[in-house]
Amino acid sequence: MIAADVIVLATPVYFFGKCAQLKTVIDRTVARYTAIANKEFYFIVTAAVGSKRPLERTIEGLRGFTSCLTGAKEKGIVYGTGAWEVGDILSRPAFEEAYEMGKSV
Questions:
Q1: In this structure, what CATH number is given to the domain that contains residue 44?
Q2: What's the predicted TM-score (pTM) here?
């Protein structure tokens, strides 16, 4: 993360929070978080819910992390709503949004 120019934080959303694996990654940055400076951040969240609003709690949690980093810049968010079963996301707008966001990096 220290060497990266761009960091993508992606998580499935369960009960309106980020997954444990992403939380662990974030927590493990404590020892060197001051060295994670001047990065561009993209957020990708997926959930079974059909609207973006319930996912804002998760986005705010990710913003809480990036607000502790010097020079962090939020560059984009993809909301993968309506993804309950494996493969559901392929037919959702978020699939194309994530692809286009990746091309712009």
A1: 3.40.50.360
A2: 0.93
